[in-house]
Amino acid sequence: MAQLRIALAQTNPAVGDLAANADKLVEWTRRAADRGAHLVVFTEMFLTGYPVEDLVLRSSFVEASIAAVEDVARRLADEGLGDLPVVVGYVDRANLAPRLGQPKGAPLDAAALLHRGRVVTKTAKHHLPNYGVFDEYRYFVRGDRLPIFRLHGVDVAIAVCEDLWQEGGPVAVVAEAGAGLLVVPNASPYERDKDDVRFSLVTRRAQEAGCALAYVNQVGGQDELVFDGDSVVVSASGELIARAARFSEELLVTDLELPEARFGGLGTFQVDAGDGTVITVERLELSASPVEPYEPEPPAIAPHLDDTAEVYAALVLAVRDYVAKNGFRSVILGLSGGIDSALTATIASDAIGPERVHAVLMPSRYSSDHSLGDAQELVARQGINARVAPIADIVNAFEKEIELSGLAAENLQARVRGMILMGLSNQEGHLVLTTGNKSELATGYSTLYGDSAGGFAPIKDVLKTLVWELARWRNAQAGTSSDFLYGFATPPIPENSIEKEPSAELRPDQRDTDSLPEYDILDRLLDDYVEKDMGSAELVAAGHDPALVARVIRLVDLAEYKRRQYPPGPKITPKNFGRDRRLPITNRWRETAP
């Protein structure tokens, strides 16, 4: 057996900022060298950030990526770090003739091995995901090479992200060709409960490959996606050795005892990948002799987050990174005293600090006294910036010029509030946070150019019942320490905001249940219709009331045009309203009654 100390750089790159990402690579490589690492592994497409979407179709961007990986290899050597091998993801280009249906320029989701000032070898993702949020057939061509490099007497193979999720391909080839360690750079987005699925997959692939597996995942927010880290190292039998924390950057340094290389020959040969393709294995050598025996460090295993904590951490990270990466200094939102705006304000305070959160209290003629009082109490509890802007006179001015009644008059109030928030955003440079939840978005219970106006929607993918759960969980954390929570000594959300019956307060004595079913009933139905794509007959067979099924399906289907105009917000479910769920607005298909 041979010893190897590996460092997994669970990092938060910025899409398109190749210079800053290269600086971070050098910095984290130096940290790994200071820890005595023998190998550093960065995440999928780290140098470019991920996902870069249509940027890969620009030759200028791909050329900059290729130049960046070569430049950073030389820079590592110039700064005395060249002897420490580095695996890093970037965008490369395949040497393929243009053809119809192939992405322009034949880009590759690639990973390079940097050592002693040069790119020693490179590989590219073999399996291209084309489901959910992934459109990789649009962007990349398939890789067909598997490098296995000898490092201190251990054969180390490289595969990229989706190559773990599909049968055959690089994992099958590793099992055939033999390696002591498989390293896998990833950019795997967060979804609820995905860590359990992911860990089960990693253990199974390690067993199939017959070697230890080091899985390093990106962390951070990128538009609607949140990356949760959760990097892991497992043994050849699938036993957990080390695990990084979730939702934060971390250098996970782990000592491994691995079998020495069994094969003496170097060079290239082809192996049947078991998926109808052939992969070329490239064997090369960086160092043949094992390191001198040393005292290993105790492995780090981060504590587990429960379901509610992980969702809340994902929302906080998404807001923090959207604000920071888009250059905003502060956020602004309408604070009504209700649970949705209360939770949104609290997430913002945790993400960027209450001193950078601005709230506008905009009571109307129908606002209850307790709503204004609950909003003011939240302001006092959290110390956020607040101002009061009553809207009654503004609404009256509109109504003097144009006669509106019923729903149109109700929506006017919401649109006045949206206009005030957007005006303050323009004037003062704040990012407007919208406060609508997934239950409202699903059923169209929102006002275009009113409460839907804004730049980012923190709870867009959060059903109403989960909003209450998150609020209660957050209040229970007051006075405790956490890396992703602001240190409020007392519960940040007023109890009355959580317990009172929800209302838009756009007409006298209005309640959400005037227009919608009870949320616990509605959310179960929405989960089956939206997340699971059940038709009406399936929904009734699953136990939902037939009349309610027909009513809710109609509400959801008719609101598609509204959702298209809603701001982006963090994805936490397998099917968010965004890239996951793509339905035509102009659409005459209707589910028939069973």
UniProtKB/TrEMBL annotation:
Residues 497-514, 577-594 have a biased composition (Basic and acidic residues). Its EC number is 6.3.5.1. It catalyses: deamido-NAD(+) + L-glutamine + ATP + H2O = L-glutamate + AMP + diphosphate + NAD(+) + H(+). L-glutamine binds at residues 131, 188, 194. Residues 4-258 form the CN hydrolase domain. Keywords: ATP-binding, Ligase, NAD, Nucleotide-binding. The keyword Nucleotide-binding applies. ATP binds at residues 334-341, 435. The active site is at 44 (proton acceptor), 44 (proton acceptor), 125 (for glutaminase activity), 161 (nucleophile). It is an enzyme of class 6 (ligase). Deamido-NAD(+) binds at residues 411, 440, 562. Residues 495-515, 567-594 are annotated as: Disordered. Pfam families: CN_hydrolase, NAD_synthase. Belongs to the NAD synthetase family. In the C-terminal section; belongs to the NAD synthetase family. HAMAP family: NadE_glutamine_dep. Catalyzes the ATP-dependent amidation of deamido-NAD to form NAD. Uses L-glutamine as a nitrogen source. This is Glutamine-dependent NAD(+) synthetase. It comes from Streptosporangium fragile. The gene is nadE.
